[in-house]
Amino acid sequence: MSTQPHQDHVPERGAAAPLKALVVYESMFGSTHDVAAAVADGLRAEGVETELVDVRHAPPAREATFDLLVLGAPTHAFSLSRPSTRQDAVRQGASPELASTGIREWIGAMGPREEARGRAAAAFDTRVTKVRSLPKAASTRACHLLARRGYHLVSRPTPFLVHDVKGPLVAGELDHAIAWAREVAQAARRWRTGDSDVAAS
């Protein structure tokens, strides 16, 4: 992971250099990790240089080299996790070390909007099938926070389904993740080269 200042390495829109992506995920029982790994595979299939990293080990956004940021998190109480909801997961059997931090805190440590200049973003979440049609979820909250910090969203918040809190993933969701990631890469490339100025809603 490069630690060069963001302003020194992010190309202006219209540049044709290969995309670099950072996929940061939070996972308590493994399902979100599996989706994130599939997302990374999909991005790489589109020729995107991609780094996959657990949020616990992710560098601050300002210190990382990327043009496209993809965040993934489990839905806790209709939103991104909080310390209390991660502790609830620990009580259900998750490893205590996984509760130390989450995507909410990682976004919260981002700097001013200027640091997001020229950077695209997308977010996904995992959720149980019985609440598949949530009006609010981890990915919707992540997208809202990213947009407030100046990132250009190239995809709508996207869910992936698990049968229960501890998994497993519903059949076909990893293929769905690869396909979605390829669409995200294509959308980011179009925006970066100036082919599209339409933000995702």
Summarize this entry quickly:
The protein is of the alpha/beta class and 201 residues long. It has helices at residues 31-45, 83-91, 103-108, 138-148, 173-192, and strands spanning 20-25, 49-54, 68-74, 120-128, 152-153, 158-162.
Mean pLDDT: 91
What's the helical proportion of residues?
25-40%
Number of H/I helices: 5
Shape: globular
Instruction: Describe the largest sheet.
Output: 6 strands, parallel
> How far is the first residue's CA from the last residue's CA?
31 Å
Task: Give a verbal description of the structure.
- It is globular, with a radius of gyration of 16 Å.
- The protein has a single domain (6-192), classed as Rossmann fold, CATH 3.40.50.
- The chain is built from 5 helices and 6 strands; from the N terminus they run E-H-E-E-H-H-E-H-E-E-H.
- The two termini are 31 Å apart.
- The chain has 201 residues and is of the alpha/beta class.
- Strands 1, 2, 3, 4, 5 and 6 form a 6-stranded parallel beta sheet that branches.
- The longest helix is centred in the C-terminal third of the chain and has 20 residues, at 173-192.
